[in-house]
From TrEMBL:
Source organism superkingdom: Bacteria
rRNA-binding is among the record's keywords: no
InterPro entries recorded: BUG, Bug_dom1
Similarity comment: Belongs to the UPF0065 (bug) family.
Keyword terms: Signal
Signal peptide: 1-22
The name this protein goes by in its record: Tripartite tricarboxylate transporter substrate binding protein
Segments passing through the bilayer: none
């Protein structure tokens, strides 16, 4: 999707004295997960591709793992709106705000959307040596063993966690949820066979599937995906839940009340980086489809997605407390 931003180019925006920021040249792009996970990888890809140069300041990735991304979200929500603190987050920003009684932020009121980077999707994966050739085998095993069967996630309240709870509801089982501080850590326990299964971003597991270490049982999407055309959707496999239809995304946010000039400045810089063919290719390799949404378009998406998340979460009856 193409953006509809103001027509002024990145260079002219950066050069305007009226948009000068505070004295420090350091800008923090805060990520709510440890290094090595999808959010961290996407953030570092943006920086390596020249986001700082396009914006006119030096960026650093500030990893603040914990709380399924909520620690990072709260930090940026409370930061000064001066163009030195931004949040790079997956759509957990919305789901956490609905499943936790006190998330510590309001996703619509405490942030200003800068731009959507792209969309991704989740796949249900097991170890390649597990005795499940297809989704039906895992479902039968879960019905027999109940809570002895576990599913991992990068944090309670994450899309991955809620997809697992949706799976429990849709096929009438009680698999045990095991949360981690990040998707990479969760994946290690499936690879090490300490956990039965998990939902993961396709880009994180593709290499392990290709190397014969993981097997994919289903895709949490409305239709089959071109990267894994032989893997059925959950609905095709016999599981149906509203949470399986929600598209995962990555986006950049500023604290609320950040001046529009600063938001536009970063939006233009982000668009310039995402427009590079090498960046689009790298994102595609990681299973992410670039979106390049303008701030206004992204804001509209948030409102629509929040309603979808609310419907899906109500169908799982998941409520969490810190």
């Amino acid at each position: 999707m193409r953006r509809s931003l103001v027509t002024a180019g990145v260079a002219s925006l950066i050069a305007r004295p009226a948009l000068a920021l505070a004295q420090s040249d350091i800008v923090q792009l805060t990520v709510g997960f440890p290094p090595g996970g999808p959010s961290d990888i996407v953030a570092r890809l943006l920086l390596d591709a020249g986001l700082g140069e396009a914006y006119g300041r030096r960026f650093i990735v500030d990893n603040r793992p914990g709380g399924g991304g909520m620690i990072a979200a709260r930090r940026v929500a409370r930061a000064a709106p001066d163009g030195h603190s931004f949040l790079m987050t997956p759509s957990f920003l919305l789901s956490n705000a609905l499943v936790y009684a006190q998330p510590g932020y309001d996703p619509l009121k405490d942030f200003t959307p800068v731009g959507a980077i792209g969309s991704s999707y989740l796949v249900l994966a097991v170890h390649a040596d597990a005795p499940f050739q297809g989704f039906a085998d895992l479902a039968a095993h879960a019905r027999e063993k109940g809570p002895e069967v576990s599913f991992v996630s990068p944090g309670a309240g994450s899309h991955h966690h809620l997809a697992g709870e949706g799976l429990n509801r849709s096929i009438g089982v009680r698999m045990t949820h095991v949360p981690y501080k990040g998707e990479a850590a969760a994946l290690q326990d499936v690879l090490g066979r300490q956990a039965t299964c998990g939902f993961f971003a396709i880009g994180l597991v593709q290499q392990h599937v290709g190397a014969g270490r993981l097997r994919l049982l289903a895709v949490a999407a409305l239709q089959r995906m071109p990267e894994v055309p032989n893997v059925p959707t959950l609905r095709e496999a016999g599981a149906d839940h509203p949470l399986f239809d929600i598209v995962s995304w990555f986006g950049v946010f500023a604290p609320a009340r950040t001046p529009d000039a600063i938001v536009r400045r970063l939006a233009q810089a982000l668009d310039a980086v995402l427009g590079k063919p090498a960046v689009a290719q790298r994102l595609a390799e990681f299973g992410i489809r670039p979106w390049r949404l303008a701030p206004e378009e992204f804001a509209g998406l948030l409102v629509r997605d929040l309603a979808l998340w609310k419907k899906g979460i109500e169908a799982t009856d998941v409520r969490l407390a810190l």
